[in-house]
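Much of what follows relies on a compact textual record of a protein's fold. A complete example follows; check for yourself that the lines match position by position.
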Amino acid sequence: MITLEVRRREFLTPGFVSVTLGGSAVRNLAVSGNDQAVRLFFPREGQTALRMPTVSNEAWMAQLMLMPKSVRPWVRNLTIRRARPADDEIDIEFALHGDSPMSSWARRAEPGDPAGIFDIGTTYRLPEHAEAQLLVGDETALPALLSILDGRPPSLTTEVYLEVATAADIRSVEAPAGVRVHWFSRDGHDDEDLRPGALVLDAVRRAPLPPGRFYTWVAGESRLATTVRRHLVNDRGVPKRDISFFGYWRLGRSSPG
């Protein structure tokens, strides 16, 4: 369990904000990959201090849930966008969703505010045999996807399919040779009930696959992740072992706590 504090906050687009956390305890974080995930602990509105679990093992959740809500922090899973151990800093980017606890905290975070992290490792597992890769996600996977691109082997052909809520959230990505980024935004569509992930899912279904043996990493809303995997395996004959898929969230359900 690593306790830090907010150093900076920057609004990147209407739907994204970056919060820089810092402190000497960053040196206790062993960064093992470009999609390094952490559990982020942050105070509830009205709390003036952060009370972290004291155990750094799987018993932390039980300890957390035994705390009264008056002192219990919120906790959410997020990806470190960038780590700068030499500066004792990490950047975490937030996809803003309405007035959820996490979005509200990210919007109001100020220098000096407390926050904590607990390392949960990486999910990106590029096989040695991969000649190319396919990366797919909605806005919640954007920070992880951009971080993965930062560490991409120069010779690896990469196709990226990204869906965001609005066109204003589409960013300029410096894509080197061999990388193509396909953006999709949900605004401007007549279907008011358009499910997050539906556009990028349809694009993957219609897209030519990368050449040779390729690795797929897909994350975002639960149905997007599972349906992309099912399509690749059942309709395209892609080996299951060459696909990593992760449901970051589920439409209509909030995180516990």
The chain is about 20% helix and 35% strand. Residues 222-236 form the longest helix (15 residues). Residues 132 and 214 are 5 Å apart (CA to CA). The chain has a mean pLDDT of 92.
